[in-house]
Amino acid sequence: MWPCLLLALALLGAVPASHPGGTRMPGRARPTAGTAGRCPWAQGSARCQPVPVPQRYCQDVYRGQLASVHSAARNQELQKLARTHTILAPWIGAVTSCRAGQWESRWEDSSPWNYANWAPIHPSHIVTTCTTLSTRDGLWRSRFCFQLRPFICQY
């Protein structure tokens, strides 16, 4: 399990002043500073990024992955974290795709799929989709992976 979280709102190589660097506090969230309701960080890039850019950003900058969720308590923790920094639903690390003729959801970090909090009619079983966590109701929704959104890294 990854001990720390980061709500990333700044991209394109801009690292916010609150970059956690050095010490990591197990079980504590270390969000970046952001501007509520907007993807760009106040002093960062000109736009947010679609998945898979956040996946690479989490790996390259924080040596982590997009967040995986394995309990209702963790889901609520991430929802509260996201809500304090944005009104947009951020990316989490779930992907839904068709494998061997069957639709399945999986975590990008390869952890077990042992919890889900899908909104009604989700996940979508039409094309491969990525997943957002609603800041409003905490439910997960399938979205096309090219949408520009903030995202949550765990590291």
TrEMBL record:
Domain of life: Eukaryota
InterPro entries found in the cross-reference section: C-type_lectin-like (IPR001304), C-type_lectin-like/link_sf (IPR016186), C-type_lectin/snaclec_domain (IPR050111), C-type_lectin_CS (IPR018378), CTDL_fold (IPR016187), Eosinophil_major_basic (IPR002352)
Entry protein name: PRG3 protein
Keywords for the protein's UniProt record, in alphabetical order: Disulfide bond, Signal
Boundaries of every C-type lectin domain copy: 41-154
Signal sequence segment: 1-17
Gene Ontology biological process terms, A to Z: immune response
PROSITE patterns tied to this protein: C_TYPE_LECTIN_1 (PS00615), C_TYPE_LECTIN_2 (PS50041)
Organism of this sequence: Rhagologus leucostigma
Pfam family of the protein (one): Lectin_C
